[in-house]
Every structure is written in C-alpha cells, then in structure tokens.
Amino acid sequence: MTQILYISSSLSGSAGQSTQLADRYIAKRQDRGDDVAIIRRDLHADPVPHLDGERFAAFTTPAAERSEAQREVAAFSDQLIDELRRADEIVIALPMYNMGVPSTFKAWIDHVARAGETFRYTANGPQGLLEDKAVTVLAARGGMYAGTPQDSQTQYVKDILGLMGLTQVDFIYAEGLNMGDEQAQPAIHDAQQQIDRRAA
Ligand SMILES: Cc1cc2nc3c(=O)[nH]c(=O)nc-3n(C[C@H](O)[C@H](O)[C@H](O)COP(=O)(O)O)c2cc1C
C-alpha cells in the first residue's frame, strides 16, 4: 500500500485552485489502480497554532521533564511528524498569499522542523533526519513569479523540506490566475496536463 500525505492550506478550502489541482493529482493516482491510502492534513479546516515561546519550550524540554501542557504540545507535533514519516509520498497544495506561503502552512512547518526529530545540527551544518521521498507541490498564484527573484516560495519550500531530508521536491505551477481568463484558463489546463503525466 502507498501512503500519500496530502497537505492543503487554501483559505477557500476545497474550492481553492491549489486544492483542486491536488485533488486531481490524488484522484489520478487512485485511478492508476494502486492501493493508495491518503493521510489528509487540511491546515485551513484544522489549523496548527502559531509557534510561540511556550510551545517552543515544550519541544526543547526533555520528555521526562515536560509538564502536562507541554506533553500535549509535543504529542501534537510528534503526530504531525509521524504523518511525514509514515508517508511514502507527499502532496502539497500551496497557494501564494502576500508573496509567501500561507501562514497556516508556515505554522505547520514550525511544528515539524524540530531539531533532534526531523533534523540535527552537526559541525557541517544541519542534517536531515527524514527518509527522502517524492514531494509534489501544486502551486497556485494570482500573478506570475516562477523563475523570477520574486518567487520567494519555491526556494523557501525546497530549503525547509531539504533541511529535514526531503530533497525530491517538484513544483507544478498554475500562475496568472488573477490576470483574466485568457491567462488563467490555459495555465490551469497546462497544470492539469502536467499533473496527469506525473500521476500516470
Ligand atoms: C490574501 C491573498 C493574498 C494573495 N497574495 C498574492 C500574491 O502575493 N501573489 C500572487 O501571485 N497572488 C496572490 N493572491 C492570489 C492567489 O495566489 C490565487 O488566488 C490562488 O488561486 C490562491 O490559491 P487557492 O485558490 O488555492 O487559495 C492572493 C490571494 C489572497 C486571497
């Protein structure tokens, strides 16, 4: 059985362009006839709290010394990390909001990028501790950024996933979605075709 961790964060929920593209990828993977199980993490419907000092202290306090509240915080983060470990493949539906990743996605990152769990510091810099696996990012944007210095998302997502050991990260972009139908429709069509090829 193949386990796919499917992470989404559109504030439009299932109507989001990124969600729809990721839904298509998942459906096509299931159509292939493989035995696929989906681990769903909808960060809009079920947001991860912002990382604050108290939550971070829960991560850094040794397990045996944690208070009850700290145990709960650490257990929640452990669960999110366990989803990453269990997955054979990861699919991320990623809207661009205000030139960056959705804050809900960043809050999730802040709960899974944990020293000693998903990466560790060494004399040669950080080393990823997750087993490498394929990550597909379905990136929906109102404007056009891919391949330009304004695309702050692509490098950031590759860097932070790479920090944890996930280096096989591929983006499929649907761009110019707020630039009129003449731009948006072909962009969505092109993304759909790339999705179908990747899922086949
Ligand atoms: C709050 C907000 C901020 C946005 N900021 C940007 C932006 O900085 N750059 C951009 O290209 N599009 C921006 N957009 C447009 C979205 O990227 C576009 O609507 C895309 O479809 C969002 O993905 P979704 O439909 O999956 O939510 C923004 C949309 C919203 C709602």
TrEMBL record:
Record EC number: 1.6.5.-, 1.7.1.17
Cofactor remark: Binds 1 FMN per subunit.
Name of the top EC class for this enzyme: oxidoreductase
InterPro entries: Flavodoxin_fold, Flavoprotein-like_sf, FMN-dep_NADH:Q_OxRdtase_AzoR1, NADH:quinone_OxRdtase_FMN_depd
Chain sites annotated for binding FMN: S10
Keywords assigned: Flavoprotein, FMN, NAD, Oxidoreductase
Gene3D superfamilies registered for this protein in UniProt: 3.40.50.360
Entry's Gene Ontology molecular function annotations: electron transfer activity; FMN binding; oxidoreductase activity, acting on NAD(P)H as acceptor; oxidoreductase activity, acting on NAD(P)H, quinone or similar compound as acceptor
Family: Belongs to the azoreductase type 1 family.
Function, as annotated: Quinone reductase that provides resistance to thiol-specific stress caused by electrophilic quinones.
Official protein name in the record: FMN dependent NADH:quinone oxidoreductase
Organism (species): Spongiibacter nanhainus
Gene that encodes it: azoR
